[in-house]
Amino acid sequence: MPQAEKVAHLADYADTAERQPLLALRGISKTFGTVKALDDLGVAIRPGEFITVVGPSGCGKSTLFNIVAGLEEPDAGGSLAFLGKPSRARDLLGRVAFMPQRDLLLPWRTVIDNAILAVELEGVRRADARRQALAMLPEFGLTGFEQRYPHELSGGMRQRVALMRTFMFKRDLMLLDEPFGALDALTRSMMQRWLLDVWQKHRRTILFITHDVDEALFLGDRVMVMTARPGRVKLEQPVNLPRPRRPEIVTSPEFIALKRTLLDAIEEESMKSFTTSDKPAGTA
Q: Which PROSITE patterns does this entry report, sorted A to Z (predicted)?
């Protein structure tokens, strides 16, 4: 093969690899007894993307996360591919980093020892894990707090420790389930900007659940709006806003127009869930 053709071939291969989804879900459904939580859900997530997920309460966001984390198997009939290979949900257990809503810090462990917990459980020597964590403390805003205990930290600092633990568990895909939901508005805004700085440095792929539309738009490359139960994807809204995202972008006409689109979609689905819950038993 001539050199020019070889270079072009390699470039095409690299471009194809970059565009190949890290995670692809097709026709995913999940039923618990008589309740159908998800129905024919499909989404593809590319490497390095920051995808935010919004939707009415009870739409199956947490069920989706549990499937992607390998904690729940979907119903038969759908397909799941990870890194281009067909997989079962259970194959993803331990291959995806998952941070739930609560920080789940162990009260008897210091900041540094909470941060290294996941890698320590993987078999990394404690001394080596601590060295790695100490090098990461500055970018997580925790310098000088390595020997503090969880009860000595603010809510924002506890979340930074939990996120550091998640980042140290080096996985291609990170699932963040409303990590800032319990924080006050000012701390939440600061944490959002801090998270984007860390994400842009490490470029991990992130799937992020939130109930806050402003947060979804400010953080995401795409916002995935889910329908009322049974959950499926109603809308995938690209967020073509410049990065790095500045705080003032939330008052720009472009941001406000995107917010209106998302709010309309969510309100429509929320009304459906109210209508369904108001129906007498036995009605269709």
A: ABC_TRANSPORTER_2
